[in-house]
Amino acid sequence: MRPVLNGDFIPDSPETLLDKGNFTNPESTMIGVASDDGSAATNAIPELSNGSLNISSITRKRFLQVIENWSPLFNRLSQTFKRFVKLYKEAVNQEYTPWSNINKTRHIRRMTLDLFKDSVIIAPSIYHANKFVKNGAKVFFYQVDHGIDMSEGYFTHPSFLKGYHQTEKFMVFGFPLKASHPPPADVAISKKVIEMWSNFAKTGDPYPYDTQSEESWPEYDLNSKKYLSIEPNLKVKSNLRPRQMAFWNDFIPFLNKTSYESCVTNFTKSNISDSDSLFLS
To answer: Which residues fall in a coiled-coil region (predicted)?
Structure first.
């Protein structure tokens, strides 16, 4: 079952509504991702996700199968632009293959995780942040670059994952504060996240009272695109994964538009040709 664009309750596609600014703009929004959100599509932490992909020992062959068979984008496109799906898949292969270390597991693993997080989580998050800001909303963007240690009675996360999927949830609800022997860094970062989230819920600003603090969290804007890196020492960074965001938010839509226009042109030419042949006969 999918939503139906009926022109009333859902007047148009989300993309069109965002482009036109035809939505109730939030006064203040917090949008965030984790540096290894791609772990959600794998079995790296079975307790957090039921992904079937064995990311620990992934091979080049398996990586190509992932590109061939997994992607909400490809599944959606294949319904209307079957002849162009191969083009999209090859573009993804070119962008995410670790060409300098094409057969090394750790490099393939990293690019696979990046493919998942960029396409499904980070690119849509950046896209929406840009649209909200363009329409006058205040946006605070973050990326979690630290994984909370949950080995005391819950689960362990592999060393190759930093900010694994859902890790900020454990920070916000203070899991390190309840542990018997938590890492000091986890306790400190959890307290800080609780403070920022509470402030935001109350005022719409993570740092409403001490904006001169070295830990201040600037608003996200369309120029610097500043965001907060949540790690033991909070850092303000800018322009998250610019190449990958350009790929998913600019290049892929360009291919989509070009493919559509090509389909329409070829369909029109085909109809004209058929009409001419019928007329001449």
So the answer is: none
